[in-house]
Specification:
Elements: H1 5-9, H2 13-23, E1 29-33, H3 34-47, E2 53-59, E3 62-69, H4 84-95, E4 100-107, H5 117-122, E5 129-134, E6 137-144, E7 147-156
């Protein structure tokens, strides 16, 4: 099970404002800093054989950092669940002028770097970016109400 606490803890206009900011980046590509891409890879390596997970933070349609967080899923070798307090803290920091929560990342220790059936079933359709890493391959997706749409990406400075 994937828990998307931000949807539960944000109210009214906060949700709409967050969706509007996320929509700015979901055309068909995204920019990610090299250090964020490395952080995703390192988190997957450290978590193996379990699924790694974390937050994608940034601004103006760019991912500037990837922060690994605890996977609190009951079966972390098969599923991921981002630790709820990490989500609360990230959204609280965003509201206080910190980096924007662009989306989430997780690994597939076995399988492809694409949304699994479980990912698709548990997705909220909130327009956030998902990064999925498997066997060293990283792909990016938007979680749209119609389903996942793949994004191309380019690596930016640092």
């Amino acid at each position: 099970m994937i828990v998307f606490a931000p949807i539960l803890i944000q109210m009214g206009s906060d949700i709409q404002r967050d969706k509007a900011r996320t929509r700015q980046i979901t055309s068909s590509s995204i920019i990610i800093r090299k250090k964020a891409l490395i952080a995703i890879s390192q988190a997957a390596e450290r978590a193996f054989p379990e699924e790694a997970c974390g937050l994608l933070l940034g601004e103006n349609g760019s991912i500037t950092s990837a922060i690994a967080v605890a996977n609190v899923a009951a079966e972390p070798t098969r599923h991921f669940e981002i630790e709820p307090q990490a989500l609360i803290n990230a959204y609280r920091a965003q509201r206080q002028g910190g980096p924007q929560v662009i989306g989430y990342f997780h690994s597939h220790p076995v399988g492809r770097a694409a949304p699994s059936a479980t990912d698709q079933a548990m997705a909220s359709g909130d327009g956030k970016v998902w990064a999925i890493i498997a066997k060293g391959d990283v792909t990016f997706w938007t979680d749209d109400p119609e389903g996942f749409a793949e994004l191309s990406y380019r690596v930016g400075d640092s």
